[in-house]
């Protein structure tokens, strides 16, 4: 026999429904009287959105001002949030709610790496001190530095424990092999290297594997070791934006080759900068991002090309910025950017549009590079961004560019 421990319609639920109906009636009455309804707090704004009346009270391009503080420097900013779109957002339990998307009008005051240079080797069982070598498996670049079939060796003078990593071959196609280094680490979270050793051409010692674009099962992808990783779900940028942890606490490795971003040592999680009343209204909502075709969604692994995450804060994708995507499905075009483009069709990649530049929050006349979350799908290390001149291009994940983050009120 079933036992009812609460009414089918919960008392608190009924109160919420009544409150939303009262608010909706208040808004409709104001509109009918020719009087604009004016929210006075961020909770008022959220109530309007949840009542399904956001597009009647607000317009695309309206701004909501919220405070944000760089906890590490104690510098405070008044942040205009542009209303960029109205629609619906999905929660992780599948519920869909009316929503209003807002985005920073200005760029954050500093940049964070999308992803750090990755390790090329994960020491499952540890490595003894000694000489090791790898073979380059893919010819890469036009400088003759990274050539398939060439072997490079290095000597560790100190052992690497189980769970440790080897990083190196950074900038492989653009840096002469004589400058290459190998860095050994005690663990995936270790900030300081055990040691840094030189690399020379040769095949003395023990082979660790073949360093190539797709990885060989023993070593990581060559591209990701050289310039970082462009997968939004595993990015340092995503972790920073969605963390309320302090300096040194907001990042954890997302895979065996992940390395901590430089900013972990000096910056606190992005959410630490907001007041409590703003944090209370944030919900993780569905975000869809296309995967690269080098390591993530390939012809051989049958992984779906679009990946879903649930984020309180996220970066816009190409499609949401009214830019032609590499793969459709990363989100609907936001009206704000469609209007800003002054175009009837989507903007094109590799073209310049000064009208979509983003300026620094601390200097409103200083245009900035701003990251998007979309991966350049034909590479595993490039993510798209809008240059300070308005050029739509992609570049290495290792670079710490600023961003103009967004969130869904729902």
Task: Describe this entry's structure for a reader.
The chain is of the alpha+beta class and 410 residues long. It has 2 domains: 119-227, no CATH class; 229-409, no CATH class. Helices cover 14% and strands 29% of the residues. The protein is built from 7 helices and 21 strands. It has helices spanning 11-32, 42-50, 54-57, 222-227, 236-241, 276-279, 335-341; strands at residues 63-70, 75-90, 96-104, 112-113, 119-123, 130-136, 151-156, 164-168, 181-185, 195-198, 200-201, 206-211, 285-290, 306-311, 358-360, 363-368, 370-375, 382-386, 392-396, 400-403, 406-409. The strands form 6 sheets. A 5-stranded mixed β-sheet has the order 4-20-17-18-19. The chain has a 4-stranded antiparallel β-sheet with strand order 1-2-3-21. A 4-stranded antiparallel β-sheet has the order 5-8-9-10. Strand 1 (63-70) and strand 2 form a beta hairpin. It starts with 10 loop residues before the first helix and ends with a strand. Residues 1-15 have low confidence and may be disordered.
């Amino acid at each position: 026999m079933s036992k009812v421990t609460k009414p089918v319609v919960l008392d608190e639920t009924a109160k919420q429904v009544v409150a939303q109906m009262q608010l909706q009636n208040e808004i409709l009455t104001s509109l009918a009287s020719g009087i604009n309804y004016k929210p006075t707090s961020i909770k008022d704004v959220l109530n309007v959105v949840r009542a399904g009346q956001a597009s009647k009270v607000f317009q695309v391009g309206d701004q909501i001002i919220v405070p944000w503080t760089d906890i590490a420097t104690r510098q405070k900013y008044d942040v205009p949030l542009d209303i960029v779109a109205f629609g619906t957002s999905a929660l992780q339990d599948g519920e869909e709610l009316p929503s209003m998307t807002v985005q920073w009008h200005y760029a954050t005051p500093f940049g964070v790496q999308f992803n750090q240079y990755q390790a090329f080797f994960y020491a499952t069982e540890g490595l003894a001190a000694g000489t090791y070598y790898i073979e380059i498996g893919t010819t890469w670049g036009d400088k003759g530095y990274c050539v398939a079939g060439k072997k490079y060796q290095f000597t560790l003078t100190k052992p690497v424990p189980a769970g440790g990593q080897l990083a190196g071959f950074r900038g492989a196609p653009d840096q002469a092999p004589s400058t290459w280094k190998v860095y050994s680490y005690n663990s995936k979270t270790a900030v300081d290297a055990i040691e840094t050793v030189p690399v020379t051409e040769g095949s003395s010692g023990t082979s660790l594997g073949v360093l190539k674009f797709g990885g060989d099962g023993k070593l990581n992808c060559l591209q990701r070791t050289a310039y970082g990783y462009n997968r939004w779900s595993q990015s340092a940028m995503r972790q920073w934006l969605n963390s309320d942890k302090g300096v040194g606490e907001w990042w954890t490795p997302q895979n065996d080759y992940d390395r901590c971003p430089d900013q972990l040592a000096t910056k606190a999680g992005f959410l630490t900068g907001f007041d409590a009343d703003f944090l209370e209204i944030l919900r993780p909502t569905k975000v869809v991002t296309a995967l690269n075709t080098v390591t993530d969604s390939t012809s051989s692994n049958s992984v779906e090309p679009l990946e879903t995450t649930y984020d309180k804060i996220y970066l816009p994708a190409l499609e949401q910025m009214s830019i032609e995507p590499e793969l459709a499905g990363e989100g609907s075009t936001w009206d704000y950017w469609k209007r800003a483009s002054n175009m009837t069709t989507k903007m094109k990649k590799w073209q310049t549009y000064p009208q979509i530049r983003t300026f620094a929050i601390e200097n409103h006349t200083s245009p900035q590079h701003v990251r998007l979350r979309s991966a350049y799908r034909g590479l595993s290390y490039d993510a798209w961004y809008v240059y300070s001149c308005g050029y739509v291009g992609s570049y290495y994940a290792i670079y710490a560019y600023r961003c103009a983050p967004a969130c869904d009120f729902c």
